[in-house]
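INTERNAL AUDIT FORM
Audit reference: QA-55
Scope: verify that the stored structure record matches its stored sequence.
Auditor: D.O.
Record contents follow.
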Amino acid sequence: MIILFPSCFNKVPVLSYYIIEEELPITYTLNGEVKVLDKDGNIINKNIEVFVGGYSTFLESEHFNLIFSAPTTDEVYVVIRYEVNGNMDEFTECLEIKNNNHSITKEFIIYA
């Protein structure tokens, strides 16, 4: 059933991964917002991109929604790339996945 209807089980139908690991990778959703703040506390969001594994999304506003897949895991690393004063900087944070939660909500506040 998992191979025929993977989305019902929060799985991604990747046959090559299944052959090696004998299970399908899990689908996760990361919802959240990013606020890059300057020294005065003003939001200066510019050219923000959020990465998880090989998946990424550009932010058009402060909010984002990113769907990604990963093997069964307890943590994922989120990398946020943003522009400040013409320079690109990166922020990395490790998120714990608790109780097989497939939908993660997180607010990232970055002090530039």
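Auditor finding: record pair retrieved intact. The first helix runs from residue 15 to 21.
Action required: none
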